[in-house]
Specification:
- The complex is a heterodimer of chains A (about 525) and B (about 625).
- By secondary structure, chain A is α+β, with helices and mostly antiparallel strands.
- Chain A has helices at about 35-45, 70-80, 90-95, 120-130, 185-195, 200-205, 205-210, 240, 275-285, 300-310, 315-330, 350-365, 375-395, 415-430, 470-485, 505-525, and strands spanning about 15, 20-25, 35, 85, 110-115, 135-140, 160-165, 210-215, 220, 250-255, 265-270, 295-300, 340-350, 370, 400-410, 440-445, 450-460.
- In chain A, α2 runs antiparallel to α4 (about 120-130) and α14 runs antiparallel to α15 (about 470-485).
- The longest helix of chain A is centred in the last third of the chain and has 23 residues, at about 375-395.
- The radius of gyration of chain A is 24 Å and the shape is globular.
- Chain A starts with 12 loop residues before the first strand and ends in a 12-residue tail after the last helix.
- Helices cover about 50% and strands about 10% of the residues of chain B.
- Chain B is globular, with a radius of gyration of 26 Å.
- With about 625 residues, chain B is an alpha/beta fold.
- Chain B has three domains: about 75-115 and about 140-285 and about 330-375, Glycerol-3-phosphate (1)-acyltransferase (3-Layer(aba) Sandwich); about 380-495, no CATH class; about 495-620, no CATH class.
- The longest helix of chain B has about 40 residues, at about 470-510.
- Classes of the chains: A alpha+beta (about 525), B alpha/beta (about 625).
- The interface of A and B includes residues 269, 310, 322, 329 and 377 of A.
Chain lengths: ~525, ~625
């Protein structure tokens, strides 16, 4: 695993000797393949040239990391319990940041790391932390993008990170919960952040999947007495835990629903003449409640990006076929290549039902001018969500920084929010002196009865900027303000962390803040779980 | 994901976009003091050199707003009728069947809708070119403003907001945009124009859409109209042109803006349906207004002739006259997004259906636009002369005559004052001042005449009529002439209003204390806010502006707490105070009249229905009187 980038150490994008982009490793469908269109796309989109390279700091130097503030008494007592721990600089840096762009460029002040194995270990650690007034920061998979894992600068106590990632057993069952980070994120983290998975249309979001939770808090252990599927016993205490972002305690045990592995899986894709038609189609699909396991709509820029990531074709026949498809869509059907957009689909279930379902969805799409564009495009679309995070690392090598963020919004505002937020990003970049037009793109990734989840990506070439991280933060901030002004939510599933804290009050009202605050005050009066997320 | 493209257009244009320093414009009073003749181009010059037919038939291929679909008028109507909002309103209308209400809505839309057609734009271009060449010596347009407009149109929906001083300016913007290959606007017009035979239809096909005058509480009509306007803005299918003042100013003075249309136009931004809207204030100034005499009579209560095609032909005798020059000054495009930053919280609309407005902000914006129009207006030598003529006793003007020499001297003095006050002056360069003076008087021979070193007021019909006049007729006749002068004076008024109010405050309070003057300044500003354009909530800025202008021209000396009048400043102060005196008199007289006191009439201006209307509105606003329904 990389500390200064996304994912596995063996998997990354690089330019080979011929100057062609290549994805290394063996883990993904794209691994080991040459991607001929990527370089041109990078150059034309960002003005990112091969000649201008910025190497990321490859080896971590212990002296570059702040020396830890140690609490000897706490350590001594804890050593006697035999729970493994580490002071190692690399471990500490690794655990004190998530995957937000900014945190990849920061250092840490954490003192030690403990690797908890089971519920009882955690109980012991929390008890001792309370006794010695040590600050605890739970750590799951480290995939946070909301600065939730950064150490609060105002914290003066010894900070101890609690890694729970080894607690997830490889069970082999299917929970159906598949966030884009699923290879790396942890179950406890999903619960603590109110996560959402790609296939929520079939399996539901984390709140629909969870049956039972056990959490260790400074006041003791919280859990329900039974596993009834629904209870009317006042407000659901699970909802204090889900989304608490490590401010109340450590989630040690979760019971989740499991489902049989789907018998049959089928990808699909639909091309629409423009984004407006695509959104109208998704809305209709949501209205008829026939959304497949996943349905995502990419805008035109992402469509072009996806195309740039197409691997080298193996035969003349395939490239001939591609040419034919292109001719059919643009010339025969009259789609404008600079406006068309594509929806990717994933169906799951038993074979017969999938085929029936597929037909229903394609029929609706046809009413909105959509043309079926094949399984292959659909599958590549989903593969992209796993490799796109690696691509960010390639961008950083060439002065490109980027980030994604999400929101949820009622159906009637989807088009407005997409247009306005993208335009705001472009305008802010320009105002802040970014030399090249940024990539500013979005996709609708989830559908609900009442609205949709929208994902924005933005990236820009920071050559010529004296403080790119600051510019980047300003742009992200402006984009979030635009989202809120257009009726979007503060977060659909990334959570609040520290990055979005400032908008919490206007989001949930002062009384709402008071409610959460009083729970925190009761559960953790000494602020042992002092990561200062959320509130 | 099927094939590859080259990025075109958008990438390159990143560097070409002019960085517009929009915030600059908000700093009121920062406009350049003297517009050089060079900045303006005479568009009639080329029209006189080449044939009108060739001009009308040239290729017209403008660059539209980027995302705009090339929708036809029927698409527009369809979009309006099928909009969610209209369907909602129709469903609310009870009493008759939905189909019937839909039918009614369709009827309203038919009556309202424009039918912009390129063929008619060409016809319009041809005719307008012919007429304008007859009426005007030249039509000056600032090319820089046009360039900025062209750029702005490609970036966001554009609203063109000219001032309205004459019927002539109805098509002038379309004419200019056609000439420079910029998309033709659709124009909001009053319904009476639509009922003119043939002409109504020509206007409709040249892009006019028609709005009823008294809409009252007709919900369906409001719904159709607002949806129609919003759809135009939202789709950006054409720039939208409308008069924020609501109607043609009879007094040539800016009218306090109307907010209905402004609301509808801005709503798509407030609701997030468009990223931004660009407002372009346009100031149109005339050396001589075509309908000057009609205006004066109208103000005195003679009903205005109904708009009709035959009336139009009868009026064609105006073609024989010379109306000097016309200046069309395209203001810097203003981004609503930037102007409203920090003023409104758009997320307030997150929980309610998206059709409510932010009146305060709209009101502020509307005033800002009119103020910007004022600043962009060019003041002619004639306006300066009118200011001075009106300060002479009326008997001097009608009987003894005013000394030509003295008037020339005073006008030149006033010219300097206007420049000190950063007004835009349209004073011909490279022409001896005496020639400017005499040609100005010649142009306005219908109001004054110059004979044997003296200037006299022309009173209509004088030589022909042998019958002795009744006193009423005499008053009316003089009043009509005076009100014409008043109109031209009004064209310059905006430059003097703020320092003028301060001068009046100094004159009345006799105080030198700054805070005392400020509170009286605020009182007058409040009383006259139906009369002059004051941007709401900027009283202290207005006061500071007045102070700094008076200081600049050497009239007063300012210290931390005091304002002292300088010996050298008496002339300026007395001029300013006399300039506003008629307004004070009118308001005072009218106030006495309302409260059943008697008073002596000091000014003819009180006879103007416009002044009376403003006074009444002010009294109602200040809650001195209330209106009872009859």
């Amino acid at each position: 695993m990389k500390w200064n980038g996304w994912g596995y150490s063996d998997s990354k994008f690089l330019y080979n000797k011929k100057g062609q982009a290549e994805f290394t490793g063996k883990r993904y469908r794209l691994s080991g393949m040459i991607i001929p269109g990527l370089r041109e796309w990078m150059e034309s989109t960002f003005g990112a040239n091969l000649q201008h390279k910025t190497p990321a700091a490859p080896i971590l130097n212990s002296s570059a990391v702040q020396p830890p503030t140690l609490n000897e008494a706490f350590l001594k007592e804890l050593k006697s319990t035999g729970i493994p721990f580490s002071h190692d600089a690399e471990d500490r840096v690794f655990r004190s940041h998530g995957k937000a762009e900014k945190s990849l460029l920061m250092s840490t002040k954490q003192s030690s790391m403990f690797f908890a194995d089971c519920h009882n270990d955690v109980v012991k650690i929390v008890e001792l932390a309370c006794k010695h007034n040590v600050c605890l920061m739970p750590y799951g998979g480290g995939t946070s993008v909301s600065s939730a894992l950064e150490c609060p600068p105002e914290e003066t106590r010894s900070i101890v990170s609690l890694d729970t990632s080894q607690m997830l057993n490889e069970s082999g069952y299917c929970t159906g919960h598949e966030p884009d980070s699923m290879e790396f994120s942890s179950l406890g983290g999903w619960v603590a952040t109110r996560a959402s998975g790609m296939k929520k249309n079939i399996y539901g979001n984390i709140e629909d999947l969870v049956v039972h939770i056990k959490m260790v808090t400074p006041q003791g252990v919280i859990e329900k007495s039974c596993q009834g599927p629904r209870m009317s016993t006042g407000p659901d205490v699970h909802h204090f835990i889900m989304g608490s972002e490590g401010t109340l305690g450590v989630v040690t045990e979760v019971t989740m629903k499991i489902r049989p592995m789907p018998e049959y899986q089928k990808y699909g894709s639909v091309v629409f003449p423009n984004f407006e038609m695509g959104v109208a189609c998704l809305r209709e699909v949501a209205r008829q409640r026939c959304a497949p396991a996943s349905i995502r709509l990419m805008d035109n820029e992402q469509f072009k990006f996806g195309h740039a990531l197409k691997p080298q074709v193996s035969s003349i026949f395939t490239s001939f076929l591609d040419g034919l498809k292109k001719f059919y869509i643009t010339k025969f059907k009259g789609f404008d290549p600079n406006r068309l957009c594509v929806a990717t689909l994933l169906f799951e279930g038993d074979r017969e039902k999938v085929l029936q379902h597929e037909k229903q969805v394609y029929d609706i799409a046809a009413k909105f001018g959509g043309l079926a564009a094949g399984e292959d495009n659909g599958q590549r679309g989903y593969m992209l969500t796993f490799v796109i995070a690696y691509l960010r690392d390639l961008g950083m090598d060439y002065y490109v920084i980027g980030e994604s963020f999400e929101t949820s919004v009622p159906w009637d505002r989807v088009l407005d929010i997409c247009r306005n937020v993208k335009a705001r990003i472009v305008r802010e970049c320009k105002d802040k002196g970014v030399q090249f037009p940024p990539l500013s793109t979005c996709r609708v990734t989830q559908t609900y009865d009442a609205g949709a989840c929208v994902y924005f990506y933005f990236a820009f070439n920071y050559r010529g900027l004296s403080d790119p991280v600051h510019v980047y933060e300003q742009v992200e901030h402006a984009a979030r303000e635009e989202i809120l002004a257009n009726g979007g939510s503060l977060s659909h599933h990334h959570g609040v962390g520290k990055l979005r804290k400032e908008w919490m009050r206007e989001t949930i009202s002062s009384v709402g803040m008071g409610m959460l605050k009083s729970v925190k005050d009761y559960v953790d009066p000494n602020n042992i779980f002092g990561n200062r997320n959320l509130l | 994901m099927l094939w590859s493209y080259r990025h075109s257009g958008t990438r390159k244009s990143w560097f070409n976009i002019n960085t517009r320093e929009l915030s600059e414009v908000v700093v009121i009073g920062s406009t350049a003091s003297l517009k050089d003749e060079e900045e303006f181009t005479d568009i009639l010059e080329e029209r006189r050199r080449t044939t009108d037919l060739g001009y009308a038939l040239r290729t017209f291929n403008p660059q539209p707003y980027k995302g705009a679909p090339s929708g036809s008028t029927s698409d527009l109507k369809k979009a309006v009728l099928e909009s969610q909002y209209l369907r909602y309103i129709i469903a609310l209308e009870t009493g008759s069947s939905v189909e019937k209400v839909r039918q009614e809505a369709r009827g309203i839309l038919e009556e309202m809708s424009h039918n912009l057609q390129l063929g008619f734009i060409r016809l319009m271009g041809y005719t307008v070119s012919k007429v304008f060449k007859r009426l005007f010596r030249s039509i000056y347009v600032n090319m820089e403003g046009l360039n900025m407009l062209q750029q702005a149109i490609q970036e966001s929906p554009v609203i063109l907001m000219p001032n309205h001083r004459s019927y002539v300016d109805f098509l002038i913007v379309s004419f200019i945009l056609f000439t420079y290959d910029i998309p033709i606007p659709v124009i909001a017009a009053g319904i009476p124009l639509a009922s003119m035979k043939v002409v109504g239809e020509i206007l409709r096909r040249s892009g006019a859409f028609f709005i009823r005058r008294a809409i009252g509480s007709d919900k369906l009509y409001w719904a159709v109209l607002s949806e129609y306007v919003r759809t135009i803005v939202r789709t950006g299918c054409a720039p939208l042109e409308f008069y924020v003042e609501g109607f043609r100013s009879r007094t040539l003075k800016s009218v306090v803006p109307k907010l209905g249309m402004m609301d509808m136009v801005l709503e798509p931004y407030f609701k997030g349906e468009v990223f931004d809207i660009t407002l372009v204030p346009i100031s149109i100034s005339y050396d001589r207004v075509v309908e000057e005499s009609l205006l004066a009579l109208e103000l005195l209560g003679v009903p205005k002739p109904k708009e009709s095609t035959t009336g139009l032909f009868k009026a064609s005798r105006v073609l024989q006259e010379d109306y000097g020059c016309m200046h069309v000054n395209f203001g810097r495009p203003l981004s609503v997004r930037q102007l409203c930053e920090g003023k409104i919280n758009r997320s307030e609309y997150n929980l309610i259906p998206r059709y409510r407005f932010i009146q305060d902000c709209v009101n502020w914006l509307a005033h800002l636009i009119v103020r910007t129009q004022e600043e962009g207006s060019l003041i002619s030598p004639w306006s300066l002369m009118a200011c001075l003529l009106l300060q002479a006793p009326i008997t001097t003007l009608t009987e003894e005559g005013l000394q030509w020499h003295g008037l020339t001297e005073k006008t030149l003095w006033l010219r300097k004052l206007v420049l000190d006050f950063r007004g835009c002056l349209n004073w011909p360069a490279r022409t001896p001042d005496s020639d400017v003076m005499s040609s100005t008087v010649a142009l306005h021979h219908s109001i004054v005449h110059h004979k044997a070193g003296r200037v006299y007021l022309v009173q209509d019909g004088d030589p022909a009529s042998q019958d002795p006049l009744s006193p009423e007729e005499g008053v009316m006749r003089t009043a009509a002439a005076v009100l014409m002068l008043v109109s031209y004076r009004n064209q310059a008024l905006h430059v003097f209003v703020r320092p003028g109010i301060l001068a009046t405050a100094i004159h009345i309070t006799k105080s030198t204390q700054k805070d005392e003057l400020f509170s009286f300044f605020c009182f007058l500003r409040d009383v006259f806010s139906n009369e002059f354009i004051f941007i709401p909530g900027r009283a202290s800025q207005d006061f500071d502006e007045a102070c700094s202008l008076l200081q600049k021209c050497g009239a007063v000396h300012m210290s931390q707490q005091e304002v002292t009048v300088l010996e050298t400043g008496l002339e300026v102060l007395s001029f300013l105070q006399k300039l506003l005196q008629p307004f004070l008199d009118s308001y005072q007289f009218f106030g006495f009249f309302v409260f059943c006191f008697a008073g002596d009439l000091h000014t003819f201006e009180v006879l103007s229905s416009d002044t009376q209307k403003n006074v009444l509105a002010a009294l109602r606003r200040l809650e001195a009187v209330t209106k009872l329904r009859a």
